[in-house]
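Structure first, sequence second, as always.
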């Protein structure tokens, strides 16, 4: 997370473009100091930060609170709803932006558009006395690149994943997949939770992300289809305009190699998540109903009626 902050602060200064970082500290552990105290924030003419805290007492009001300490998409809604700038980027704390991407963000963006980029995974070594700089991390070779067309492995072949043998062909599922290819737009949902940028007005029209007390899998793709259904231009920016993702331990987030460990942990904890079939059913409903933005969350999305503690490091 310190690399994430350092990278944004450095780019804001070099490109002389003011950004405000809104950090949502959801359910902070009571036995540890808050983020404000343990990280360096670099306030400057071009870089400012607000930290919004959602305490444990609010977290505990949600189902599955003991099995999932962070409801990522509800937390993002808290920040999106309280953002003040005309454009809001929803991202994560393990991301750096390429210089080419940051330079593009400082140009005139379209108010009725949603922007997506590829995600480039890199392996950062932290067990050294002097941690790497954001510039050094941006130059690391890619382990994977997640694009609209799928995931590529520039460093070598994709890992083999064992699949159970099937003696019967699932004809209904194949038929649904054929319909999807024919009627659904080809939107860049691969790694969407790491970079989705649009105007405050569009975020407000779709009420942010769906506020289900689930693990975040697939939820990050729904806003793209809601925006598309509402007539928003969904724009894919090309490499080298990419989000650079810092690789972390297997099973702590989704990776092709670690999916089994992740979902095994969630199943053991009783934490629900969207299946691919349910996700695609919802996407079909959004696109084919032709009813505008179709917000999933209610009018109080992002804990809009709750007064939350806010601090400025």
């Amino acid at each position: 997370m310190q690399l994430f902050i350092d990278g944004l602060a450095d780019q804001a200064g070099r490109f002389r473009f003011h950004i405000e970082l809104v950090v949502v500290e959801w359910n902070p552990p009571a036995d540890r100091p808050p983020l404000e105290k343990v990280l360096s924030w670099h306030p400057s003419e071009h870089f400012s930060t607000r930290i919004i805290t959602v305490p444990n007492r609010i977290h505990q009001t949600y189902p599955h609170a003991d099995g999932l300490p962070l409801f990522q998409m509800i937390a993002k809604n808290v920040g999106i709803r309280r953002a003040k700038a005309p454009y809001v980027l929803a991202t994560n704390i393990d991301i750096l932006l390429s210089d080419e991407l940051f330079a593009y963000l400082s140009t005139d963006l379209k108010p009725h558009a949603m922007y997506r980029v590829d995600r480039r995974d890199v392996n950062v070594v932290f067990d050294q006395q002097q941690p790497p700089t954001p510039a050094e991390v941006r130059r690391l070779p890619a382990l994977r690149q997640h694009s609209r067309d799928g995931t590529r492995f520039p460093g070598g072949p994709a890992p083999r994943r064992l699949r159970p043998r099937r003696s019967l062909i699932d004809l209904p599922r194949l038929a649904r997949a054929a319909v999807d290819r024919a009627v659904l737009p080809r939107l860049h949902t691969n790694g969407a939770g790491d970079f989705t940028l649009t105007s405050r007005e569009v975020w407000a029209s779709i009420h942010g992300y769906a506020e289900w007390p689930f693990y975040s899998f697939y939820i990050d793709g729904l806003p793209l289809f809601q925006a598309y259904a509402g007539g928003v231009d969904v724009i894919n920016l090309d490499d080298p305009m990419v989000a650079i993702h810092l690789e972390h331990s297997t099973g702590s987030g989704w990776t092709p190699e670690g999916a089994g460990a992740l979902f095994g942990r969630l199943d053991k904890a009783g934490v629900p998540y969207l299946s691919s079939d349910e996700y695609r059913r919802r996407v079909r409903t959004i696109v084919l109903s032709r009813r505008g933005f179709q917000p999933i969350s209610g009018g109080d999305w992002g804990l809009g009626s709750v007064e939350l503690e806010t601090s400025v490091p």
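Margin note: The longest helix spans residues 2-15.
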